Every structure is written in structure tokens, then in C-alpha cells.
Amino acid sequence: MDLNFSPDELAFRAEVRAFVAAHLPDDIRDRVRRGDESQVADDLRRWQEILHAHGWGAVMWPREFGGTGWDKTRQYLFEIECAAADAPIQLPFGLKMVAPVIMRYGTPAQQQRFLPRILDGSDWWCQGYSEPGSGSDLASLKTRAERDGDHYVVNGQKAWNTLGQHAGWIFCLVRTDPAAKPQRGISFLLIDMRTPGIRLQPTRLLDGGHEVNEVFFDNVRVPVKNLVGEENAGWTCAKFLLGHERTNIAGIGASRRELARLRRMAGEAGRNGAPLADNPVFASRIAQVALELRALEVTNLRVIFGEARQQAPGPEASMLKIRGTEILQRITELQVEALGARALEYEGDGEDVPRAVGHYMNLRKLSIYGGSNEIQRNIIAQMVLQL
Ligand SMILES: Cc1cc2nc3c(=O)[nH]c(=O)nc-3n(C[C@H](O)[C@H](O)[C@H](O)COP(=O)(O)OP(=O)(O)OC[C@H]3O[C@@H](n4cnc5c(N)ncnc54)[C@H](O)[C@@H]3O)c2cc1C
After folding, report:
1. What does R_g of the chain's alpha carbons equal in angstroms?
2. How far apart are CA 121 and CA 167, in angstroms?
3. For ligand 1, what atom is nearest to the CA of residue 211?
4. What's phi and psi for 239, nearest 5 deg?
5. pLDDT of 63
6. pLDDT tens digits, residue range 268-303?
7. How far is CA 193 from each of CA 22, 105, 365, rounded to the nearest angstrom?
8. How far does CA 285 lie from the centroid of its chain?
9. Distance CA 10, CA 327 (A)
10. Measured between alpha carbons, how far is 273 from 164 in angstroms, rounded to an integer?
11. What letter would DSSP give residue 130?
12. Cβ contacts of residue 79 below 8 Å, gap of 6+?
């Protein structure tokens, strides 16, 4: 298999690089570089508006809905270049999760109402899947939705809701038939976060940030027209969405950027007057993770080029998720080691010292969300090893 990019693809990569260099605002780039999330909502919205104005708002959508229609290779190159330039990520919940579900299972009215507002950044979406006790075992979820005329009345609680404090909308899995088998009694609802009866409570994380919430629903009235697909057939939407959640999860762009940062940190950090990069043991640990990243990159390209030939992504997505998250976590561990005792200075000069420990702690989440790595290993055991 030829894993080289074609001349067309290389020209495309150069075009993306030039665009991002010219259009990513300096203040946003600086905040992403420093890991400063104080204006995250504003930064993400502004970047989405800039991309949308250029026609690149939804790089993974088909053209008929206003996307670029790019193939997986171009999407990959776009993500790599954006990460390398310290552009903010595009939040997945609207663009990569609920939008494909609305395109596939939504009514034309839902498509016309919701998709353009995701594309131009007017609507911020969040995900209401997990509940206390229903994370990996999602089908056991208990949040109820009972029909009352042309509304559902929703009661229950969602957990681990990422950045919902900025969201106007939440897509939720709710139980509409408690008597049916778990997977058969679930529906997929689109809920306006401003509806009376919704309350958010922040969940503080290890790094001290307010990134996730608990969401409580107390007699929340949701119009039946906000049901996607058939009542009680929401599990089909849920699985379709989770397939999308795991694409591009290898995080090659972020790992490459953090590896470059690690190399720089090791080049600067002093141990007995010499940079740590000159220490053969530390240098070999950096080389090891760099090799693992390169191997992952090649595997990722094999999957992408396989998809270009119309092979559906299967357990490969689980493989990429496990290795990608392990590698990025490893790089952040080495960053903290590279700083040594300086990593404990929570307030420091430069972009590395205040960021490294918080970033290290925050990224422990990678092997949990998007389907925990243990669950991904189960998928590989069943689908690849046939155990
Ligand atoms: C930072 C963060 C952000 C998140 N954002 C969102 C969000 O926006 N929206 C949302 O809906 N959810 C979100 N999640 C939830 C996430 O998807 C769940 O945490 C995840 O599915 C794991 O579920 P759980 O936490 O209930 O753990 P559990 O399912 O209770 O698992 C606990 C441990 O047991 C292991 N385990 C469980 N079952 C098995 C099994 N069958 N075999 C082997 N091991 C098993 C797990 O891998 C894990 O290590 C987020 C989570 C985090 C940490």
C-alpha cells in the first residue's frame, strides 16, 4: 500500500497551512498554546465563524448540507495542520455527533432548522448520554420521557456533560418504554437548554477546571417534533453517533504538537547544568514515544486509505483510540518529568510551567471518555481476536 500523499494532497496541505497562518487570530493561538481556557467558548465560536466564512465550517459533512465534501485524507491533513498551528479544536458535539444523526435520521424540518446553525456556530450543542451508573453500560440509562399530548415530559439526571454551561442545546438519550428490553425502550431527543426545569451543576476536575457538569431534568417539556427517528428506536441513533465519536480519535495532530513541545522543554531544562535532552536515558524515552507515535500515524493512514476504498472503519477505530490516548498521556507525563520540580510552580513565566501539570491531569480523561479503553479492548477481543 502506498502511504505517500499525492501531489494534489500535498498542495491541499500547503493551502490549509497558509490559510491557518493568515487567519487564526494571534490572541486565540496564544491562549491555545498556553492552555488558557478562560475564553474557550468565545474562542471556539470565533474560530468556527472564520472557518465557516471560508467554506470550511464542516470538513466532514457532505456538500449537500453545506460541508466541504472532503475525503478522509483531506480531513486528516486539515486536523494535523490546525493542531500544528495551535488552532482550537472544533467541538465534536454539534459538528461530528448530532449533525450526522440529524442528516441520517432527522426529518427535513429538523435538518433545515438545526444544521445551518451548527455550521455557522450559532448553536452550541452538548451531549446527554451518560448518567450516574450508566456510562459504559449505557443501555441501562434511567432518565424518563413520558408522552403528554404533543410533548414529552423529561425527568432524570445526566452526568459528565462536557461544556454544557455554554450550550444552547443538548441531545439526550431518554427512556420512553420502561417495560421493553433496555435497548428497545430508548429515544433520541433534542432539548433546548433554556427550557424551564433544566439545572446544571459543575463537576470539578483534577486540574481545577470547570469542564463538565451534572444536568438535572425536572418535568422538562420537550416538543414531540424534537424526537429524532422513531420513538423507542433511539438506540440505533445512539450507536450511529458513537461510531462517529470514535473517528479521528487517534489525535495525531495533538500528539505531534505536544511531542515538539516536549523536545523543546527537554532541550531547555537544566539538570546539573546540561539540558535533559543530552541525558541518554531521557532521550531514549522521548525516542520511544516518538517511534510509537510514528507507528500509530502509519496505522492511522492505513485505516484512512482503507476507508477511501469504501471499507467501513471497524475495530480499527478502537485500536486507534487506545494507542492514541496512551501515547498522548505518555507525552504529557514526560513533559512533567522534563520540568522536574518546576512543574510544581503553578504560576510561572513562559507557556510551559503553569500548563504542564494541569494538562497532565486533565488528559487522564482521554482513556475514559469516548468509550473507555477497557471497553475498546473488549471490542478488539470480540471482533478481531474472536474471543
Ligand atoms: C472528562 C469527561 C468528559 C465526558 N463528557 C461526556 C459528555 O459530554 N457527555 C456524555 O454523555 N458523557 C461524557 N463522559 C462520560 C464518559 O463517556 C463515561 O465516563 C464513560 O463512558 C465511562 O463510563 P463511567 O464513567 O460510568 O464508568 P464505568 O462504566 O462505571 O466504568 C468504570 C471502570 O470499569 C471499566 N469497565 C466497565 N465495564 C467494563 C466491562 N464490561 N469490561 C471491562 N471493563 C469495564 C471501565 O472501563 C472503567 O475503567 C465524559 C467523561 C469524562 C471523564
Report:
1. 22
2. 11
3. 1
4. -70, -40
5. 96
6. 867 777 888 999 999 999 999 999 999 999 999 888
7. 36, 22, 25
8. 28
9. 26
10. 47
11. -
12. 248, 252, 253
pLDDT at 375 over 70: yes
How many angstroms separate the CA atoms of 217 and 16, rounded?
Answer: 43
Cα(374) to ligand 1 centroid in Å equals: 10
Q: Are 72 and 308 in contact (CB under 8 A)?
A: yes
CA 108 centroid distance within chain: 27
Q: Of 245, 258, 297, 337, which residue is the catalytic one?
A: 245
CB-CB contact of 335 with 359 (8 Å): yes
- Residue 116 makes CB contacts below 8 A (sequence gap 6+) with 66
Query: In which band, very low, low, confident or very high, does the pLDDT at 248 lie, cut at 50, 70 and 90?
Result: low
User: Residue with the nearest Cα to atom 31 of ligand 1?
Assistant: 136
> Counting atoms of ligand 1 from 1, which one is nearest the CA of 205?
1
Nearest CA residue ID for atom 11, ligand 1: 129
Residue whose CA is closest, atom 25 of ligand 1? 135
312/303 Cα distance (integer angstroms): 9
Site to probe by mutation for ligand 1, drawn from 368, 377, 379 as the one with most ligand atoms within 8 Å of Cβ, is 368
Q: Ligand 1 atom closest to Cα of 371?
A: 21
Task: Provide residues with CB under 6 Å of ligand 1.
Answer: 126-130, 135-136, 160-162, 212, 365, 368-369, 372, 374-375, 378
What confidence tens digit (pLDDT) does each residue in 72-91 have? 899 999 999 999 999 999 98
> Per residue in 211-242, pLDDT tens?
999 999 999 999 999 999 999 999 999 988 88
81 is catalytic: no
Q: What is the CA(130)–ligand 1 centre distance, in A?
A: 8
Beta carbons of 266 and 339 less than 8 angstroms apart = no
Q: Which residues contact 94 (CB under 8 A, 6 or more apart)?
A: 118, 123, 124, 125
CA distance 227 to 222: 9
